[in-house]
């Protein structure tokens, strides 16, 4: 039994010490999505959906919940954000080619239609991010319309 107490004490000390360390935060400015908004021209309803349901993981600006201060949760969130930005990063929109922009919007449409985005693990703690059928349709309509510009740019003259 003594060994279990020592292991438990050791783990407790490790957990306490770990609280003083954490991953880098994704704390850029929300203004980093300005180019994305200017180019794709979402209506206000869609802008709100993007801000509440997408940009925490798909931009350089994350609104962190209180539990991000707890290790190892903060590492899990940082990894989640890294993967989200790896698939689509609205803050880097100006760096994408027209073909890539079209493809990213196509993927956005597919994921939102299938209700695979936002992820359930996100909506559990962010109830406002759950999309209604009306919001899904508004996002899909906007993205389909925005794709036209990039499809035209892709065509050889």
Characterize this entry briefly.
The protein is mainly alpha-helical. The protein has one domain (25-154).
Helix and strand arrangement:
Layout: H1 2-18, H2 34-40, H3 44-53, H4 55-58, H5 73-87, H6 98-113, H7 120-123, H8 133-154
Helix pairs in contact: 6-8
* Overall SS class: mainly alpha
Radius of gyration: 20 Å
Number of strands: 0
- Residue stretches low in confidence (pLDDT < 50, at least 5 long) are none
* Head-to-tail CA distance between termini: 78 Å
| Secondary-structure element pattern, one letter each | HHHHHHHH
Number of domains: 1
Mean pLDDT comes to 87
Largest sheet: none
Helical content stands at: 55-70%
What does this structure look like?
With 157 residues, the chain is mainly α. It is built from eight helices and no strands. The chain has one domain. Helix 6 runs antiparallel to helix 8. It is elongated, with a radius of gyration of 20 Å. The chain starts with a helix and ends with a helix. The mean pLDDT is 87.
Features of the shown structure:
0% strand, mainly alpha, 157 residues, 8 helices
């Amino acid at each position: 039994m003594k060994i279990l107490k020592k292991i438990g004490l050791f783990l407790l000390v490790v957990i306490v010490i770990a609280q003083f360390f954490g991953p880098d935060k994704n704390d850029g400015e929300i203004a980093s999505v300005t180019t994305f908004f200017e180019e794709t021209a979402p209506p206000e309803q869609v802008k709100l959906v993007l801000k509440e349901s997408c940009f925490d993981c798909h931009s350089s600006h994350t609104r962190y919940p209180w539990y991000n201060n707890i290790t190892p949760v903060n590492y899990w969130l940082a990894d989640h954000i890294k993967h989200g930005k790896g698939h689509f990063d609205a803050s880097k929109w100006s760096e994408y080619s027209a073909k890539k922009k079209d493809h990213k919007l196509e993927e956005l449409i597919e994921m939102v239609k299938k209700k695979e985005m936002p992820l359930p693990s996100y909506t559990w703690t962010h109830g406002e991010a759950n999309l209604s059928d009306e919001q899904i349709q508004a996002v899909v309509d906007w993205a389909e319309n925005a794709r036209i510009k990039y499809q035209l740019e892709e065509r050889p003259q």
